[in-house]
């Protein structure tokens, strides 16, 4: 970092080699010099401490901002070492440091009412009185219940949301701030407006890959591929639009408009559009556009119709993809099954009533019917990438006469829906949608699904609040997540 480079001379080569706690060997004139073995010795004793999560402890564990100065904990270690002024061998230094650390475990260096040992176990710097554990007994390091580490949370927000390390200067300023919670919130808001977070190929875009399933070969418009069919940037734009500036996240399923993106002053600006600007690829008039009143967010974009629905007569794959991507239920894994009476009807003679198929298709087929009036690239229907009310009649020759009986109404989550617009409303207002949306960000920021009891409790509160308190505002939800103990735990 720039700040480290600027201070390399001031800190000295020893500080850079140590990479963590800088402890000393006694020299004539009692000079304190760094020992590269000190971090390993410390973490050898306290391997389970969050302070040793990276294998090295930070300089601040024993030192002030300008080593070789020491903080109260470092002073206790120094006194406990009791060196006589002679240089110590590696073995003597390691043994002496181990004994000194054990000797002062029961002391309270920063006089905050918590012993050195408990602070180390919980991941707190025992020489820093500005932060301390919320409980006076040891808990499992790194897990909820171990308090909120403002320094760690501040660093993590910068990395997670801005994509950069906190500079030395900014971190020093943050240490002096009284309202650390407010400072973290301010940094988070700043990061929300960066290209790293909301720009083209930013974090939100990358989170959307598995939902959109982009394929360069079929892309139209900007950055077009060899066989342009549709522009999936419209899908990324809509998701990002719905997930930023505390707009209603449900718009990504219910919006009856498209979203464009432009660059202004180095930032991405997203705006609503009435139509896709590239509806006549190659000047071919068979390409059309979904009427505004028949649009349902990302489920009816040109890319979804062209590259997911494609040639499907009954778009089961499209319905399954939407169910998996936005409601978090994978039909292939037998998740979210709501069997419908008399289904599957097998209108297209695909043998979906077979014993190994019926269990899933009792839910999937009824869920897919509302998608059947949206044509992908099946030329039988005449117009591509659009809504065709009588679409099913065009497939009678290939699929048989029963195909005309496929209804436009269906069932989602056990509820009857008359068309895809109602499908979108039921989906967007469901608990499943809220859970899936919050879980995407949880996994991004926490690294895995909630597993510990307190994590599961925190997650449940978060997705419920996302609906009732945060009013489907993703940024409001993220503020709550960042301020939670599970995010800021040491």
If you had to describe this structure to a student in words, what would you say it looks like?
The strands form three sheets. The chain has a two-stranded antiparallel sheet with strand order 1-2. It has a two-stranded antiparallel ribbon with strand order 3-4. Strands 5-6 form a two-stranded antiparallel sheet. A hairpin with a 2-residue loop joins strand 1 (258-264) and strand 2 (267-273). It is elongated, with a radius of gyration of 30 Å. With 490 residues, the protein is mainly α. The two termini are 23 Å apart. Mean pLDDT is 85; it is low at 1-35 and 135-145. Helix content is 42%, strand content 5%. The chain is built from 24 helices and six strands. The chain folds into three domains: 2-135, no CATH class; 142-192 and 431-490, no CATH class; 217-428, no CATH class. It has helices spanning 2-6, 8-11, 13-18, 38-45, 72-81, 90-103, 116-122, 150-162, 168-176, 180-192, 195-198, 203-207, 209-212, 233-242, 251-254, 302-309, 316-327, 355-368, 396-399, 420-428, 431-446, 453-468, 474-482, 485-488, and strands spanning 258-264, 267-273, 374-375, 386-387, 410-412, 415-417.
Offer a concise description of the structure:
This protein has helices spanning 2-6, 8-11, 13-18, 38-45, 72-81, 90-103, 116-122, 150-162, 168-176, 180-192, 195-198, 203-207, 209-212, 233-242, 251-254, 302-309, 316-327, 355-368, 396-399, 420-428, 431-446, 453-468, 474-482, 485-488, and strands at residues 258-264, 267-273, 374-375, 386-387, 410-412, 415-417. It is mostly helical.
């Amino acid at each position: 970092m720039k700040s480290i480079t600027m201070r390399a001379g001031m800190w000295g080569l020893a500080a850079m080699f140590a990479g963590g706690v800088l402890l000393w060997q006694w020299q004539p004139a009692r000079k304190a010099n760094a020992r590269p073995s000190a971090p390993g010795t410390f973490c050898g004793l306290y391997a389970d401490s969050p302070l040793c999560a990276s294998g090295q402890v930070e300089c601040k564990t024993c030192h002030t901002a300008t080593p070789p100065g020491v903080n109260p904990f470092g002073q206790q270690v120094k006194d406990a070492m009791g060196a006589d002024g002679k240089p110590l061998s590696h073995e003597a230094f390691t043994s002496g440091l181990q004994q000194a650390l054990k000797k002062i475990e029961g002391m309270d260096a920063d006089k905050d009412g918590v012993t050195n040992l408990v602070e180390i176990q919980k991941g707190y710097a025992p020489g820093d009185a500005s932060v301390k554990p919320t409980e006076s007994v040891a808990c499992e390091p790194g897990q909820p219940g171990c308090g909120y580490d403002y320094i760690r949370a501040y660093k993590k927000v910068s990395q997670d949301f801005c994509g950069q390390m906190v500079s030395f200067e900014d971190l020093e300023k943050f240490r002096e701030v009284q309202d650390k919670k407010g400072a973290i919130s301010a940094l988070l808001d700043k990061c929300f407006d960066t290209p790293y977070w909301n720009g083209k190929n930013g974090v939100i875009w990358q989170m959307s890959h598995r939902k959109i399933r982009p394929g360069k070969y079929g892309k139209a418009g900007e950055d077009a591929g060899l066989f342009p069919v549709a522009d999936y940037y419209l899908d990324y734009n809509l998701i990002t639009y719905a997930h930023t500036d505390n707009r209603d996240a449900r718009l990504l399923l219910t919006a009856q408009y498209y979203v464009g993106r432009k660059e202004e002053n180095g930032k991405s600006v997203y705006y609503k559009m009435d139509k896709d600007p590239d509806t006549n690829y190659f000047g071919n008039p068979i390409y059309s556009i979904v009427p505004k009143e028949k649009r349902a967010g990302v489920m009816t974009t040109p890319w979804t119709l062209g590259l997911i629905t494609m040639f499907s007569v009954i778009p089961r794959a499209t319905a399954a993809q939407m169910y998996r991507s936005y409601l978090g239920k994978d039909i292939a894994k037998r998740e979210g099954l709501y069997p419908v009476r008399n289904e599957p009807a097998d209108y297209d003679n695909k043998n979906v009533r077979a014993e190994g198929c019926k269990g899933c298709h009792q839910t999937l087929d009824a869920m897919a019917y509302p998608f059947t009036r949206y044509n992908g690239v099946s030329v039988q229907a005449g117009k591509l990438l659009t809504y065709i009310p009588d679409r099913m009649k065009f497939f009678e020759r290939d699929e048989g006469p029963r195909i005309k009986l496929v209804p436009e109404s269906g069932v989602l989550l056990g509820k009857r829906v008359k068309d895809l617009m109602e499908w979108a409303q039921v989906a967007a207002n469901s608990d499943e949608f809220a859970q899936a949306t919050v879980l995407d960000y949880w996994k991004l920021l926490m690294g895995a699904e909630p597993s510990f009891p307190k994590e599961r409790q925190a997650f449940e509160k978060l997705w419920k609040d996302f609906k009732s308190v945060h009013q489907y505002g993703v940024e409001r939800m993220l503020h709550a997540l960042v301020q939670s103990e599970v995010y800021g735990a040491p």
